[in-house]
Amino acid sequence: MFPEYRDLISQLKTTHTRFHSLFDKHNKLDHEILRLEAVSRNTLNDQISQLKKEKLRIKDELYNILREESNA
């Protein structure tokens, strides 16, 4: 995720509390989505879709933080 910001991501994970929290939540959602897709039942499609939307929202927020911090 965002290879152009690799160094900044490493830095923000240790210095920016909100970024660190979002980064962890994004990773947890990613693992949960992969787990649910592995057992993929039709009844889980709505749940997976909601998790993917939340993951994308978090990714957008992470990107916004990265852009702000890279311009600082």
UniProtKB/TrEMBL annotation:
One Pfam family hit: DUF465
NCBIfam families listed in its UniProt record: PRK11415.1
Protein name: DUF465 domain-containing protein
Source organism of the structure: Pragia fontium
Phylogenetic lineage: Bacteria, Pseudomonadati, Pseudomonadota, Gammaproteobacteria, Enterobacterales
Gene that encodes it: ydcH
